[in-house]
Amino acid sequence: MDLLLLSGRAHPHLASRVAAALGCEPGVCRIQDFPDEEIQVSLDAEAAGRDVYLIQPLAPPAAGFLLESLLVADACRRRDAARITAVIPYLGYARQDRRVRGQEPVGARVVADMLAARFDRVLALDLHNPSIEGFFTIPLRHITAVPLLAAAARAAGLDDHVVVAPDLGAAKLAREYAALLDLPVAFIHKERLGARNVRVTGITGQVAGRRPLLVDDMISTGGTLASAVRALLEAGARPPVTLAASHGLFVEPAAANLGALPLDRVLVTDSLRAAGAGGLPLEIVEIGGLLAEAIQALR
Ligand code: R5P
User: Fold this and answer.
1) Which residues line ligand 1 at a C-beta cut-off of 6 Å?
2) How confident is the model over 16-45, as a mean pLDDT?
3) Using the 8-state DSSP alphabet, how is residue 80 labeled?
4) Confidence class of residue 197 from pLDDT cuts 50, 70 and 90?
5) Residue 247: which residues within 8 A CB-CB, separation 6 or more?
């Protein structure tokens, strides 16, 4: 089946890098906002009979980019595309994967149902919770950038480091990094007080005298990692601290939350455009090749 790679407006540079790794050009798909903010999509590329891959992270504003993805998929389906795969380097709404008080929706399930209504398959990178795969009624291939991030962390030397999970949700992830890097691991106990406020209630593991490599699936406001860095320094960990996360959202006030801390490196992938990370010692680990390999494996 002939390949057609498309991009929405969330991250066209990433789509170009994937296309370059696959040795093709992204197909032209014109997308514009009407004055009333409705999104209008028009395919110039021919989708009929082709194996379509739409590269679009559900980055902020996730609702808009989700709808945009659905509209592109609908245009492809109505043009008789043979198969349509959503390549989602960052799945927005993934943190809404359960009801906490019983009065909320399961947002990740709602998003999964919407994607399944228009796409045949999903290729996702480093989901907030791997069990989200179970929300999808279409096949989902889950890949990870953790080995690439770990290799980038290792490149600067990691003597006397300890891998730290900033909350218990990141415990499995921290163990993965620790195994890849042959380092000890520690866990922070975090309590979330609100969308922008968290509090550290304890640390399990030896951190005194060691340099922390704090790992998480995403950096959003930076509140989780900022609280973790402060707690680690109070517990006797040695600065500077290295941060590693698959997804760098860097929404307000991430630069302010993280900017004043003793950080030597902030490693994130280019699953998103890291627009709000100004002033941070950012190192971007490119995932274009990884996505291209995954697409090849799916064909
Ligand atoms: C929480 O479960 C996630 O894994 C992240 O730790 C969290 O969402 C990061 O958000 P923020 O940077 O706003 O603290």
Assistant:
1) 95, 128, 166-167, 169-170, 216-224
2) 97
3) T
4) confident
5) 89, 90, 126, 217, 218, 219, 268, 269, 271, 272
- d(C-alpha 121, C-alpha 163), whole Å: 34
Query: Structure pTM?
Result: 0.95
Distance CA 91, CA 56 (A): 9
Atom of ligand 1 lying closest to residue 221 CA: 13
pLDDT of residue 31: 98
82 dihedral zone (left: phi>0; alpha: psi -120 to 50; beta):
alpha
What is the amino acid identity at position 182? D
- 51: Cβ contacts below 8 Å, ≥ 6 apart: 1, 2, 3, 4, 81, 82, 83, 85, 299
- Closest-CA residue, ligand 1 atom 10, reads 220
Distance between Cα 218 and ligand 1 center (Å): 6
Question: Residue 1: how many CB atoms within 10 A of its CB?
Answer: 11
Antiparallel, parallel or unpaired: β 197-204 and 185-194: antiparallel
Percent pLDDT > 70 in the chain is 100
- Residue 224 CB contacts under 8 Å (≥ 6 apart), including other chains: 166, 167, 190, 198, 216
Strands 211-219, 29-33: pairing kind: unpaired
Q: What is the pLDDT of residues 115-159, one digit of tens each?
A: 999 999 999 999 999 999 999 999 999 999 999 999 999 998 998
CA distances from 158 to 58, 66, 87, 267, 287 (A): 33, 39, 33, 14, 23
Q: Which atom of ligand 1 is nearest to the CA of 223?
A: 14
